[in-house]
Amino acid sequence: MMIFGNAAVCEPIRDTVMFHTAGIVVLTVCVNSTTMPKLICYLGMDKVGPSKKLIYDQAMRNLLKAGEKQESNLRGDHMFDSVVWDMSRKYYCQIIAGLETPASKRRSTVEDERREEKEARRRALMITKKSYWRQFQDGLLSNESVQYLVHHTDLAIDDDCRLNEWSTYVELVRLSPAANKVDGKELNAKLPHADAQRMKMLTFLESVPVLVAILVLVIISCTLSLVLDPVEYALVSFIEHITSILFFIELCVRFYCIQNWQTAAIDVYVMVDTFAVLLDIVLIGAGDFLGGFNAKSFRSVRFLRLVRLLRLARVANKIKQTKIAAMNEPTSLWDKTESWAKKYKRRVLFSQLKHGYEIATGFKVAREEVLAAFKHIESMTQGSLAIRRSVEKDLNDVRSTLMDMQRLYSEIAASITTSIATRTILNKQRHAIQDLYYEGLLDSNESSKLTASVEYQMKILTSQPPIIEMPKKRDILSQIPWLECVGKDELQLITAAFEDSVFQRGDVLVEQDVDEQSVHVLARGTVAVSMTNEKGDNVVLDELGMGSVFGEIAWAMQCKRGASITATSPGLLFTIRGPKLREIAESNAELETRLWQTCGRRVSENLLALHLEDQAHVSRREIRDLVHEMSLYTVYPQTKRVCFNTSGKVVILHGKVVIQDDHSGKTTVFDAPRVLDMFNTNCLYTADFSTDAKFMCHPRTISEKRDQGTRPSGSIPNISLVGLEYERPSLAGLEYKRPSTFMSRSALHDFVLLPSNNGTVRMPLAMVRRADASSRQEENNGHSSGASGSEHSSSSKPQEEKVNGSEIV
Predict the structure, then answer these.
(1) Starting from the edge strand earliest in sequence, which strands make up the sheet with 538-544, in order?
(2) What region does 98 belong to: left with phi over 0, alpha with psi -120 to 50, or beta?
(3) Which SUPFAM superfamilies would you find in this protein's record (predicted)?
């Protein structure tokens, strides 16, 4: 094109060049288009590896299962009765023909298994990387932490997809051997003798006396070399040579102890020491090289020996590295007097451990998501099983490390978690402001001001992180969610009702299957939650730290303990007896409601996690969000029947319930605790609860829409709701995305709800009857016979009346 557009070249030559160039391009395209497919097939580049086949086939099976499940849901809705499903299935996503190889035709070789294992590891790392970014969006990880995690995940992908990231992360939260001592014995195996000697020598070089001696020698040598002339005073020259030799020997011993040039290269203090010592050696012979110069030049060279002052960086590093001294320091758990030095240590430790704690928690969440994904792979190979065991080992290691940190640094761990929780909430508020702006509830000016306010609070949190010291008993109890509603005077009385007890490592605080209803608050220390399964094996479920509450579920359900609580470290426990707490709750209705809300959410989350464990796409975080949208309902003696929509889930917390299918007449009795599915059907479900039963569900799961043929349009919707979550802010309605189109028509029977300006109010039964009587009279006078026939069919159910008159009611 340059020649063709150049006017200096004659036109025939330009046309010839353009013609030949175009011919070459056309010929190249023709040759490549005809030969390249055959070449790619010959090289085998058009074939998918068996490892990718395995993962892709599993993904396609999950995709088809999701479509089949959604189809079954739509089949149960009258809106889609006219759908031609055979025609609709033609548009479904199908598995590519020939991609899924039958098991009988697969020939597994060692190389194929190795490739499959590598592909599985790569997928695990990709899930891990995706989890990091999602946690960053949720505010669980800071910018520095997510960059660090993603960087090391990329390094692991480049390094043959090895799942060994924890070996790097553990260095950020590594504790001294004293942290893993049990009854004076170290849990870790002893080091070889040579390594132990090198570790001992390195510890000696890092000790305070050695650092102080180096500091004194540096100050003396620098002062004398500047004040006195080494040429005139032989003592000054002798001191300079001796200090240089001592510094050189100390550096050589340090390199011998490290024995790894990579470790020494990334240690900035070792590099500074090396530069200072080598420059000091060069300056010793500066007098011989500069002998022909004047005295002023020689004096200027002596000023370069001030580089020795860089050795002071080692002393500054020693001040920061107080981790081992803090852990080996024998302190009492409840020592009220704390020296200034220890407070300074804890402030320094906070900045060091916060980054490591974020890394560990982010890695833990990512590994849990990887484990959940691998549990639902149907054809697990030996390589996949090995990866799964490696992930489980990483989870155990990170849990143990986090609990060790919390056991040794309870206040610092509380400060770190407080900072992370605050940042998460601020990040959630910032996203909520953006959602409100996109919904049109906020204009651009208001959105900018609110966003700037949230970001300002984030900067304050970063510059001034919370430093939490050992709280008092009253402060610990005031942080319990179900005690936040009580006043100061009542909180003081409740605090006095809690008994203090000190426990040691190995003490069993709660035994499984014991009928005991005390509620415990862990004020200090750590405990392990374990359960004996049907095979008799003791399975550790979780570990709890400072501020954890346990026992309130057994108190609310009035059942036996479901697990054992064993102390893993010395600590302090606050305990309130079950009858005393029940007496306090009966005198404070709001406290009782808060207790049931807290217990109900925990029970609902655990039950839904077990109920949805076969669904790989449902994470624990999504279940927790689902439970957060639920409200607590209490059944009163005069209102024991309710009808649910055909979508949503209902968790029975207390009492019994009779579910009757109004279409088939089938009746089923369920005992609490239980999850009831209200979907995959188009039938009307009527629930008859026992007296004082309690359940949790989303407010939209209970129909507020009356059947016009059953009740008059002016009658009162009959629901009895207990809880503060029913009337939520407008944002909750925006976040709830479940379409009302898929909710079938249903009716309510004999349940009372009175909406008012101040919330939800229960109406007395006599008033309800009078309102119903007047409404029915108006209906008989003004409505058609079809409505009365519907009412007659709704009230003439002998099987239902028989159930309602049974002993469970």
Answers:
(1) 508-510, 564-567, 527-532, 538-544
(2) left
(3) cAMP-binding domain-like (SSF51206), Voltage-gated potassium channels (SSF81324)
For residue 544, give the nearest of 522, 564, 561, 571 by alpha carbon. Answer: 522
Long-range contacts of 284-288 (CB under 8 A, 24+ apart): 284/240, 284/241, 284/244, 287/230, 287/231
Is there a contact between 220 and 244 (Cβ–Cβ < 8 Å)? no
Q: What is d(CA 482, CA 628) in angstroms, rounded to the nearest whole number?
A: 15
Segment holding 575, helix H or strand E: strand 571-576
CA 742/CA 78 separation, integer angstroms: 9
Tokens of 193: 């003798």
Distance of CA 633 to the CA centre of its chain: 29
- Alpha carbon distance 110, 182 (integer Å): 44
Alpha-carbon distance of 559 to 672, in angstroms, equals: 11
DSSP-based three-state secondary structure for 660: strand
Map residue 98 onto helix, strand or coil.
Answer: coil
Q: What is the pTM of this model?
A: 0.45
Question: How would you class 474 by CB atoms within 10 Å of its CB: exposed for 0-12, middle for 13-18, buried for 19 or more?
Answer: middle
Within 13 Å, how many C-alpha atoms sit on residue 740's CB side?
9
Q: Do 674 and 649 form a contact (C-beta atoms < 8 A)?
A: no
**Whole-angstrom distance, CA of residue 64 vs CA of residue 70:** 10
CATH architecture of the domain with residue range 207-320: Up-down Bundle (1.20)
Assigned token pair, 102? 């039958």
545 within 8 A of 526, measured Cβ to Cβ: yes
- The rounded distance, in Å, linking the Cα atoms of 117 and 114 is 5
Looking at residue 499, its amino acid is: E
Q: Is 600 exposed, middle or buried (CB count within 10 Å of its CB: 0-12, 13-18, 19+)? A: buried
- Tell which phi-psi region holds residue 721, choosing left (phi > 0), alpha (psi between -120 and 50) or beta: beta
Triad 253, 206, 248: Cα angle to 5°: 35
Distance CA 709, CA 713 (A): 9
One DSSP character per residue, 13-42 reads HHHHHHHHHHHHHHHHHHHHHHHHHHHHHH
Which residues are bridge partners to 739 per DSSP?
Answer: none
Task: Note whether 708 and 748 are within 8 A (CB).
Answer: no
Q: From CA 57, how far away is CA 71, in angstroms rounded?
A: 21
Q: What is the mean pLDDT of each run of 10 residues along the chain (809 residues)?
A: 75 83 88 84 72 67 78 78 82 59 50 75 88 84 86 87 84 53 38 69 75 76 69 72 81 78 67 76 62 48 57 59 41 43 57 79 88 67 76 86 72 77 86 88 88 87 73 80 81 86 84 86 85 79 82 82 85 87 85 83 81 66 80 71 68 79 70 69 65 78 46 32 30 29 29 39 43 51 43 37 30
Q: Which residues pair with 257 in a beta bridge?
A: none
Which residues partner with 538 through β-bridges?
Answer: 532
Tell me the helix, strand and coil percentages in the chain, rounded to 5.
60, 10, 30
Cα atoms found within 13 Å of the Cα of residue 607, Cβ hemisphere only: 22
Give 541: exposed, middle or buried? Use CB within 10 Å, 0-12, 13-18, 19+: exposed
Q: Containing H/E element for 539?
A: strand 538-544
| SS3 track for 607-657 | HHHHHCCCCCCCCHHHHHHHHHCCEEEECECCECEEEECCCCEEEEEECEE
Q: Which amino acid is at 76?
A: G
At 522 the three-state DSSP class reads strand
Amino acid at 449: K
**Cα(651)–Cα(639) distance, integer angstroms:** 18
Q: 346 near 408, Cβ under 8 Å?
A: no
Instruction: Report the CATH fold assignment for 473-591.
Output: Jelly Rolls (2.60.120)
